[in-house]
Amino acid sequence: GAVVSQHPSRVICKSGTSVKIECRSLDFQATTMFWYRQFPKQSLMLMATSNEGSKATYEQGVEKDKFLINHASLTLSTLTVTSAHPEDSSFYICSARDGTDISPLHFGNGTRLTVT
Amino acid sequence: AQSVTQLDSQVPVFEEAPVELRCNYSSSVSVYLFWYVQYPNQGLQLLLKYLSGSTLVESINGFEAEFNKSQTSFHLRKPSVHISDTAEYFCAVSPRGNTPLVFGKGTRLSVIA
After folding, report:
1. What is the tens place of the pLDDT at every residue in A83-114?
2. Beta A10-13 vs A111-115: how paired, if at all?
3. Cβ contact B43–A42 (<8 Å)
4. Nearest-by-CA chain B residue for A39
């Protein structure tokens, strides 16, 4: 079945540094990918919709200059957390569909970001 | 806009007992409905989905969910749970089109031996 690969699975960084998270669709092309953030014991909150070849669409309250999204190819989207702070520590998950709009979303295994 | 309500944040149940995880949704347009399962520190795995047709949908591991349009519900059930079913379960909806999912807050199912 369709697989979405996310890397790294865990990352620890110092405050003020930047971290890049990669999301790849391994056996299908994804014109659209979705980035979610999950706080401990809470649901997934949509951060942004990543569109191949164009700018991402951010949800209200998400700082686009802080969470940089690049979707340069049909199989890769990246999320860069810039100038990370401890409050950015969270679980980030990407997802994509492998076909039509009735296809379910496939999720990566997530990235646990810890900012010290 | 769509919203999803999962009334129970935690559901403890003994092994081999039946379980129902409740999910209600709100939407002004037709939606697709999903249940996802999440194991600790992992992404989400699709459990089952309702797109159209039969209102009762089943997964390969014994879970089933029934779409009830009049009650705007999509409750998840399993007649006999196993220890391995312990996980977080998320109900989600999306309007038709290549749109993101809107998730409920999740229900933590804990199966007790």
Report:
1. 999 999 999 999 987 766 667 788 899 999 99
2. parallel
3. no
4. B105
Average pLDDT over residues A46-55: 90
Average pLDDT over residues B30-42: 87
Which residues of chain B have a CB within 8 Å of the CB of A109?
Answer: 42-43
- What distance in Å separates the CA atoms of residue B31 and residue B101, rounded to the nearest whole number? 10
In this model, does residue B38 exceed pLDDT 80? Answer: yes
Residue type at B82 in one-letter notation = H
Say if B100 is an interface residue toward chain A (CB within 8 Å).
yes
Query: Is B19 in the A-facing interface, judged by CB distances under 8 Å?
Result: no
Q: Which residue of A has its CA nearest to B47?
A: A104
Contact A112 B41 (CB under 8 A): yes
The confidence score (pLDDT) of residue A100 equals 63
State the pLDDT at residue B21.
Answer: 97
Q: What's the per-residue H, E or C state across chain B?
A: CCEEECCCCEEEEECCCCEEECCEEECCCCEEEEEEEECCCCCEEEEEEECCCCCEEECCCCCEEEEECCCCEEEEEECCCCHHHCEEEEEEEEECCCCCCEECCCEEEEEEC
Q: CB–CB of B4/B91 below 8 Å?
A: yes
What is the signed CA dihedral for B90, B4, B68, B88, rounded to 10 degrees?
Answer: 10
Q: Does A21 touch chain B (CB under 8 A)?
A: no
Report chain B residues whose CB lies below 8 A from the CB of A91. Answer: 41
